[in-house]
Amino acid sequence: MNGKIENMANRSNKKVVIIGAGLGGISTALRLSKIGYKVSILEKNESLGGKITSFKSKGYKFDQGPSLITLPKHFEELFDDIDENINDHLELIKLNPMCRYFFEDGSKIDYFSSLDLMKKELDKIGEDFENFYNFLSIGSKIYELSEKTFLNFPVGKFPSNIKLNNLIKFPYLKSIRSYQSLVDKTFSTKKFKQIFERYPTYVGSSPSNTPGMFFIIPYIEYAFGSWYIKGGIYKLIESLEKLLIKNNVKIIKNCTVEKIEISNNEVAGVKTSSGHIDAKIIINNTDVSNLDDFKNKHSNQNIDNFSLSGFVIMLGLKKKINLKHHNIIFSSDYKKEFNDLFKRKTFPDDPTIYVCNSTYTDKSVAPENCSNLFIMANSPATHRAWTNDDTEYAKKKIFKNLQKININIEKSIIEVEKIQTPTYFMSQHNSFGGSLYGKNSHGIINSFLRHPNKEKIKGLYNVGGTTHPGGGTPTVIKSSKITTNMIKNDY
Ligand SMILES: Cc1cc2nc3c(=O)[nH]c(=O)nc-3n(C[C@H](O)[C@H](O)[C@H](O)COP(=O)(O)OP(=O)(O)OC[C@H]3O[C@@H](n4cnc5c(N)ncnc54)[C@H](O)[C@@H]3O)c2cc1C
């Protein structure tokens, strides 16, 4: 205990500046302040949370970013690390079914988190239960290996009990070079293949280019559940902001970092829109593609290497819409859709649509007998600014595909409408071409050698979805743990 106090006293002299108050920046600020570092967090926007953001209008509440939480244990661990109990702050609700899928032929499947109900759905479409079991079996092996290596350690640093030889001997390594071929081998029906081929797009990537290791995404969702936070996902940020204040983190909003000042290959401070701040330890939580700008270096990033962006419409409707919490309406030609997204680099002619209808679970997010729909379709990242015509085109395509499942969005029922295009994501979050997950996960290098958490410049670290181990809320919290441990070791 004495040692702990002594350490904290030493660390209280150590000033840390965090650029960006996304989930990664906030989690790291909390973990470092709890062990004695003096942390300031600088955020260009007027509210915290980055991609996790929300808005309210006319009694409707919308999450504008994430709507699905997986791996709640990483959220619990974050609260534990700062001596708090997550249940005192948030109410997590497990969703069952996790999703309703709508197919071109008019049929639908409820994707249940319980195996007995799931078996009935599999039987309905003629998919073998054994195939689903095989997916869980392969997924669990990939998950176990990732937990022992990739997810919990800095890039390329594995614990001493894991030998390279063991990794090479990993039973599925050869067979899982391509995610798509693994899906193809595992399932027999077109419908299940379609459901599974969608998962790599959760990290903005194509199923034909990502390695089979990405079976970890559907496995994690199935094994550990799909969760919602009562009151909306933004409740997470609201509760963490209170804890930042409780832990004496200095929060500076509306403050844009323009440069990282470097002297003798060591950080010295940051130049911001509100002046200069000294710091020997700086953590970048913004898209790592901003680092070149911050360091005054010419950037030669190629947009083709970046993950997808999205097109989002949020609608407050004076009507109860008959949908589950999460819904996916598949396009009629999935191959053509992927071709539009990843080869032609254009908004799809026939997009697959994701609809979140959180009023299904939570009555508090819309007026009585009304619905708050968050509707999203994938779209390529781009530096070209979206025009009104682009927006109208995408909106028309989405409304047309909603009609396929008898959802007619007449003007008379729309009380609130808000749209987010790739241009919005680019300016609001300062992300490269509006891409939502940084570099895509195409090929082994992009997938497993993500941008490191520590730069070669002394005192400069990264955290968040564009850095190791990758995007998505639980992985970002993991990234925060890795970066925190590195700083703890270095200072
Ligand atoms: C529409 C959408 C849907 C998603 N759905 C899901 C989902 O269902 N489940 C899930 O787990 N994940 C989802 N994600 C991904 C998830 O939201 C992100 O991976 C995660 O929130 C990223 O956190 P981060 O710490 O990397 O930082 P970010 O959220 O990217 O935050 C970075 C912060 O840095 C600030 N900043 C940038 N430049 C500067 C500067 N120069 N000076 C100061 N501040 C700056 C930004 O304003 C921002 O606040 C979704 C994302 C989006 C956009």
Q: What's the architecture of the domain at 2-50 and 231-300 and 443-490, going by CATH?
A: 3-Layer(bba) Sandwich
Number of strands: 19
- As residue ranges, the low-confidence spans are none
Class derived from helix and strand content? alpha/beta
Largest sheet: 7 strands, mixed
Question: CATH superfamily of the domain at 2-50 and 231-300 and 443-490, called what?
Answer: FAD/NAD(P)-binding domain
What ligands are attached or bound here? flavin-adenine dinucleotide
Q: Number of helical segments? A: 16
CATH C-level name of the domain at 2-50 and 231-300 and 443-490: Alpha Beta
CA-based shape:
globular
Integer average pLDDT = 92
CATH fold naming of the domain at 2-50 and 231-300 and 443-490: FAD/NAD(P)-binding domain
Instruction: State the share of residues found in helices, binned by percent.
Output: 25-40%
Strand content: 15-25%
* Rg calc: 22 Å
